[in-house]
Design brief:
This protein has 111 residues and is α+β, with helices and mostly antiparallel strands. It has four helices and four strands. The protein has a two-stranded antiparallel ribbon.
């Protein structure tokens, strides 16, 4: 029993030191975001705002005519998705973004 308590005590004493060592090993700065990547992230934020505002006109300009939207309930084409937003059958109220990135590959962007 004394051995178990001694090992647990040692683990508790070492935990802050291990955590500090792991923190020190982490990169000091986040990867640089290019102006183009920031533009894409800003557009993504605007898209979520437009969806909450049901601004179908702005979304229609943003969404490609052949885009497909995949949800848990199925998939829909651009005009169907815009109609769902327009009529309020789906009401986006708030999107909280916990992590984001933008990658460019030629003329394609992945956000």
């Amino acid at each position: 029993m004394k051995l178990v308590l001694a090992v647990l005590s040692l683990c508790l004493v070492m935990s802050p030191a291990v955590a500090t060592a792991q923190t020190a090993a982490a990169p000091a700065t986040a990867p640089k975001i290019t102006p183009r990547q920031q533009e894409l992230l800003d557009l993504s934020h605007a898209k979520w705002r437009w969806m909450a505002e049901r601004n179908v006109e702005a979304l229609a300009d943003l969404f490609h005519a052949e885009s497909v939207f995949v949800h848990m309930s199925g998939a829909s084409f651009r005009d169907q998705e815009l109609d769902v937003i327009r009529t309020g059958r789906i009401q986006y109220k708030h999107a909280e973004i916990f992590e984001e990135s933008a990658r460019l590959a030629g003329t394609t962007a992945i956000v």
